[in-house]
Each structure stands twice: as C-alpha cells, then as structure tokens.
Design a protein that fits this description.
About 35% of the residues lie in helices and about 15% in strands. The protein is built from 15 helices and 17 strands. The strands form four sheets. A six-stranded parallel β-sheet has the order 5-6-4-1-7-8, sandwiched between helices. It has a six-stranded parallel β-sheet with strand order 11-10-9-15-16-17, sandwiched between helices. It has a three-stranded antiparallel β-sheet with strand order 13-12-14. The longest helix has 15 residues. It is elongated and about 65 Å long. Bound molecules: adenosine-5'-diphosphate (ADP) and magnesium ion (MG). Magnesium ion binds next to helix 13.
C-alpha cells in the first residue's frame, strides 16, 4: 500500500484551508482526570505541523464506548483540556459533533487554530453497520470543511474500525496519512517482515479472546510466546489444570489446545507460568499467596481463589527469555498491575524489555499505561504503540479499513 503523506498536503498548501484530522484522544480517565496522556502527546506533532502551516484544523476523536448519544462521562473535555495545556496553538472544544456549536465554531475558526468536535460516538451513525447512515454522518462532518477541505488520518488506534470518521470521510476528501499512523505502521512492518530473531511475544491482559486470535498468525513467526495475564488460565485449563475462580474463557479451550498442538511443528514455543499469585478476592488489599500453577485450587482460598498475577519464578523465566531476544512485542499486562500487590509480573516484564538489547514494542492502552504508572520512561522502549486492537489486527494479518481506504 502507498499513501499520500502529511508532508505532501503541507507542500500543496493548507493556509486558510479546513483540514479534518482524525486523532486518537481515547485516553484512560479516573473520573475526569486523564491518567495517561500518551495518546494526546502522540497526537500533537501532526496538529502542530498543520497549525504552523496555517490550516484551520477540525479534530474528530472518540472516547470510550458511549451508546450513540451524548453522555457526560464520555465527553472529550478532560482530554481536550490536557491537549490545550500541551499545545502551542489555540484549542477549542465544540459542545456537539456536527450540531449548531460545531457549525458556529468552525465557521469562526481562524488560520492556525484547532477546533475539536465532541466525541464522534455521541452520534450513533459513527459506528453504524448501515453504510448509508455512516455516509450521512460523514457528509455532515465533511460539510464543516467547506469547499477545499482535506482529511488526515492520524488515529492509529482506530484504523481497524470501519467508522464514519475513519473510513467514510476518507472516501469524500483528498486524504493523507498522518505521521503517527505512518510511524506505527513502520513499526508493525518490522514485526512481520524480516523480523530479527529471536522474536519473543509477550501476551497478557484481560481481553482474552482478542489476544488469542493473534496467536494464529504468530505461530511459525514468533520463536517464543510468553503467556501471562488473564489468558494464562485458559492455557492452564487446556492442559487439564483447575483454575478456581480465575478469569477463564471456557469456549476458548479448544482454540488453545489447537495452538498447543500446532506449536511444535510451527517452531514456536509457548511458555506458560509455573507459579501464580492467587488472591482471596479481586481487591487491592486482598490476602494472597503464590502457588504452583498446577495447584491453584490448593491455595488457602480453595475454589474461590483468583489468580491475579504471574508468580516470581515465572516472572524471572519470562525476563530471561526477553533479555535473550532481538525483537520483543508485548501486549497486555501480566497481572492486575493497578493493584500494587499484583504488579510484580508486569514490572518484571517491563524491566526486562528495557534491559534487552532488542527492538522492543509495547502495544495496548493498559500496557502503555502500566509501563508509565510503574515509572518507566517512554524512551526506555523501542516504541510504545498508541493502538492495542489495531496493532493486534495488523499482526493477525487482517485488512485494516482505515489504512486501505487511504491507499492511493
Ligand atoms: P491492553 O489495554 O494493554 O490491550 P487489556 O485491555 O487486554 O490490555 O487488559 C488490561 C487489563 O487486564 C488490566 O486492567 C489488568 O488489570 C487486567 N488483568 C491482567 N491480568 C489479569 C488477571 N489475571 N485477571 C484479571 N484481570 C487481569
Ligand atoms: Mg485495555
């Protein structure tokens, strides 16, 4: 695929033109406070390039999963407040997406200013499966750009979505790939073609079936897959162990069995934890103990115990493999890192990535947040991706609608 770049658009001239930019401002919030502003910072360079060149920038973005109607807790207000703090240009947030506020504010926008439209998912047409619904919404977004508009997709975290603000607007305006999307795709290419070996993939987190799907395409490509987080219990169950009250996706057991069977022939080794930290309940101050992975029900909490982290032996074994790698892709925390008592596995994996003499990539919103809240610097890693689902789908070999629509 080849794309028109942001630099091409700048070279064409954007002064006084409306440029619609799809950004990824989908940041984690604690109430109305942004807890990780990584995606906001990653969105800044493109907005700066455009405003420096005199464009009138209209930003579309989503936050969370509102149900197609405005909801205060999914307002872009906190994200835009943080953007305004960081930005050297003027930023305003419209009260709606394509309503009277968006229309008035865009009409009075000056060269070099940015207007962010409210959460695109406040409009049910954004994510509609009905092409004509999305088309209608895209037409209304495009209408805000006047007669000489352009579109820049810079929201890597949303390129796997066939949504109006990602896909349909790109079929209506001259469209360009933003620098963030460009960088992310370059990184992913390194993980799929001529990858430096040993190639170690670390998978964890709680979206078990999403994460399991990527393994299919990694068999034969990755040398080693380290299994942690919520999905490890489906692996333990697949080899016949009891997992007590731990996160388990029973319907995925056959899928895991199939992977385990195909792994040896494919030349990929799975490493599943040998010890697990089991807690009495899901809470920060829960009583907990470390037990062998094949004896989870044997903990003091019996059938009620929940595995919330990989144990120290497993963390050390994972760290060893990571340090011996030339390429590492990590998606999904090893445990419930939000609780200090269950953050050890995630911390050990993060530490090992920073020490490895390897190209290291961290993907996934919570994984990125984890390394930052655990105190690691962004530049200690080769790349911290802004996209979780998008990078997984890329690695799965799926077509990403937001990328193919930009193909010229
Ligand atoms: P990412 O956003 O990096 O793709 P996910 O969204 O899949 O990752 O999962 C992140 C969440 O997984 C974290 O909030 C973490 O608390 C949770 N998690 C990790 N291990 C476990 C576990 N053993 N049981 C329940 N939740 C877990
Ligand atoms: Mg997540």
């Amino acid at each position: 695929m080849t794309f028109h770049t942001l630099n091409e658009l700048i070279a064409e001239g954007v002064r006084g033109r409306y440029v619609l930019v799809r950004s990824d401002l989908n940041v984690p919030l604690d109430g109305f406070t942004v807890t990780d502003d990584g995606r906001i910072k990653a969105s800044l360079p493109v907005l700066e390039k455009l405003t420096d060149a005199g464009a009138r920038v209209l930003v579309t973005a989503h936050l969370g999963r509102p149900k197609g109607a405005p909801e205060e807790k999914y307002s872009l207000k906190p994200a835009v407040a943080r953007l305004a703090e960081l930005a050297p240009f003027k930023v305003v947030l419209a009260e709606d997406t394509v309503g009277s506020s968006a229309k008035e504010l865009s009409a009075s926008l000056q060269d070099g200013e940015v207007l962010v439209l409210e959460n695109v998912r406040f409009d049910a047409r954004e994510t509609s499966k009905d092409d004509s619904q999305r088309a209608q919404f895209a037409d209304e977004l495009v209408a805000l750009t006047g007669s000489n508009g352009a579109f820049v997709d810079d929201a890597f975290g949303a390129v796997h979505r066939k949504h109006a603000s990602v896909y349909d607007v790109a079929t209506r305006l001259p469209s360009y790939q933003g620098d963030l999307v460009h960088t992310e795709v370059e990184v992913l290419q390194k993980l799929t073609t001529d990858t430096q070996r040993p190639y170690v993939v670390v998978l964890g987190g709680s979206k078990v079936s999403d994460k399991l799907a990527v393994i299919d395409n990694l068999l034969g490509k990755a040398d080693t897959i380290l299994v942690g987080g919520g999905m490890l219990f489906t692996f333990l169950a697949a080899v016949g162990h009891q997992v007590a009250g731990s996160l388990l996706e029973e319907d995925q057991i056959p899928v895991v069995k199939d992977y385990l069977q195909r792994a040896a022939a494919a030349g990929t080794e799975f490493i599943v934890p040998t010890d697990v930290v089991v807690a009495e309940k899901f809470s920060a101050d829960a009583t907990h103990e470390t037990v062998p992975a094949d004896a989870i029900e044997g903990s003091s909490f019996g059938a009620k115990g929940i595995g919330l982290d990989i144990g120290p032996d497993s963390a050390a074994a994972f760290a060893d493999r990571i340090k011996g790698a030339k390429t590492v892709f990590w998606n999904g925390p090893m445990g419930v890192f939000e609780f200090e008592a269950f953050s050890g596995g995630t911390r050990a994996v993060a530490q090992a990535l920073t020490e490895a003499d390897a190209f290291t990539v961290v993907g996934g919103g919570d994984s990125a947040a984890a390394v930052r809240t655990l105190g690691f610097a962004d530049d200690a890693f080769g790349h911290i991706s802004t996209g979780g689902g998008a990078s997984l789908e890329y690695l799965e070999g799926k077509e990403l609608p937001g990328l193919s629509v930009l193909d010229r």
